[in-house]
Design goal:
Layout (H helix, E strand, L loop, with lengths): L10 H12 L7 E4 L3 E6 L5 E7 L5 H14 L19 E5 L2 E9 L13 H23 L26 H15 L8 E4 L8 E4 L2 E4 L6 E4 H14 L9 H16 L7 H4 L2 H17 L5 H15 L4 H14 L2
Antiparallel strand pairs: 1-2, 2-3, 3-5, 4-5, 6-9, 7-8
Helix pairs in contact: 3-6, 4-8, 5-6, 5-8, 8-9, 9-10
Length: 334
């Protein structure tokens, strides 16, 4: 997305402030927007990413604690990004324009490209799984060494705030979904299955360079179940707009999971009982997506339709089968 295409309140004031703090003009950057952040990518001799969290979704302290984990990961994985300080030599900056509050940080831009759907073969899923297995093996090692990081647990994240969903979904369905979420909360929190996770390990946060997979955008890292990262990754591949519409999503999920698991297990091994919980964690990811969407300022009619599909899928007894049914109905126009 180009700068002129992105919608930011008081856009030129925002642009001026970023330039004052970091000496970079976002009008010359590749721009992206998600429910959490604006990101501005700069290539060239000084490649970097400027990440802006709006309306107090991130604080400088959050970024500091994120960096503490990344600094430890970098001891074992060389292609982990790091902070590039602002012109005032701060790890992050905060400012406000009218009623909008912003927290800004700049990171080294790591090399690599997002793989197109046509290039995602078994080898791709293998090396992506291997990378995630490496991250989880480090998390396991950190816990065994007594290391602790000041990050929240998965259910404490803002992305799981479902207060806005009450405007879109019946209380009966929300109650059913809440029961399933509570069930996941009671899974054992032991180092073999639970620790520091990426928190948003999905297709847009994975880059490939030759036969090497790289992860970035760790701002959602937290304490959570390793299987949550795995389900998030595979689910992101089947919902990626580049994935052909006619494919059976349920079949695709498990065809991708097989080589992914082989790569993962070269670095870390989860008990078989964890892999049997994959549907619960797909449910968790869909629920999180619905929560994040419910808080955005987008068209209400469109948003309501998408949220209803997501929540009806997440509350089904078999989440993946329900997702595939909803997907087929969309193709048929039902």
């Amino acid at each position: 997305m180009k700068y002129k295409e992105i919608n930011i309140p008081d856009k030129e004031l925002f642009r001026k402030k970023i330039k004052e703090l970091y000496g970079r003009d976002i009008a010359n950057a590749e721009c992206h927007f998600s429910s959490r952040n604006y990101t501005f990518l700069f290539n060239g001799l000084k490649p970097s990413v400027i990440r802006v969290s709006a309306n107090a979704k991130r604080k400088i302290s959050d970024i500091k604690h994120e960096m503490e984990w990344l600094d430890d990961l970098r001891k074992y994985i060389s292609d982990i990004t790091y902070i590039i300080p602002s012109l005032t030599n701060s790890i992050a900056e905060e400012f406000s324009i009218d009623d909008n509050e912003y927290c800004v940080s700049q990171f080294k831009l790591i090399h690599g490209e997002k793989a197109n759907a046509e290039n995602r073969d078994d080898q791709y899923f293998y090396i992506v799984g291997k990378l995630l297995g490496k991250i989880h093996s480090i998390s396991y090692k950190e816990q065994k060494e007594g290391l602790k990081f000041n990050r929240c647990k998965w259910y404490e994240k803002n992305s799981f705030d479902f207060s806005y969903l009450k405007d879109y979904v019946s209380s009966e369905i929300l109650s059913k979904l809440h029961t399933r979420i509570e069930k996941i909360k009671f899974y054992p929190e032991v180092p073999e299955t639970f620790g520091m996770i990426h928190g948003d390990f999905q297709v847009n946060n994975i880059l490939i360079e030759w036969d090497n997979a790289k992860a970035f955008n760790f701002d959602n890292c937290c304490y959570g179940y390793y299987m949550s990262d795995i389900a998030t990754a595979i689910f992101s591949f089947i919902v990626d707009p580049e994935t052909p519409l006619e494919n059976n999503r349920n079949d695709l999920f498990f065809s991708y999971l097989e080589p992914f698991r082989k790569g993962y297990e070269t670095e870390f091994t989860l008990p078989d009982t964890e892999w049997n919980k994959v549907d619960d964690f797909v449910c968790l990811r869909i629920f999180e997506c619905a929560c994040m969407l419910s808080r955005t300022n987008t068209d209400t009619a469109w948003k309501k339709g998408v949220i209803n599909r997501l929540i009806n899928t997440a509350s089904a007894d078999n989440c993946l089968e329900a997702f595939d049914t909803h997907h087929k109905n969309r193709i048929l126009g039902a």
